[in-house]
Design goal:
105 residues; mainly alpha; 5 helices; 36% helix; 0% strand
């Protein structure tokens, strides 16, 4: 066949014309656990806040690991920092090898 027909067929085929995917929006969407359950974030609720803090290091866990939306992550971080400041939560945790040591309790 003629060169124009071959090119037209290639452009119509799925090889050169893949299914359009919206960039960044085609990721798996999951609901924020705080928004979906209508939980109110408060610095005095240490039991809730401790779920978003790493057990080993005491660091605030990121959004990708917890599935929390950006707005609630900011509120969580602020509440955790406030709870730490008022002495309700620790800033850091002991290293695992020293947790049972009598000298560091």
């Amino acid at each position: 066949g003629n060169m124009a027909t071959v090119l037209r067929r290639l452009l119509v085929s799925r090889i050169f014309n893949p299914v359009p995917v919206s960039r960044g929006l085609a990721q798996v969407t999951r609901d924020c656990p705080i928004c979906s359950n209508q939980i109110r974030i408060d610095y005095k609720n240490v039991q809730l806040l401790s779920q978003f803090v790493s057990e080993g290091t005491g660091q605030i866990v990121g959004r990708k690991d917890t599935g929390v939306c950006a707005k609630q992550q900011r509120k969580l971080a602020k509440a955790i920092k406030r709870a730490r400041h008022f002495g309700l939560m620790p800033y850091t945790y002991k290293l695992p090898q020293y947790r049972r040591s009598e000298t560091l309790k």
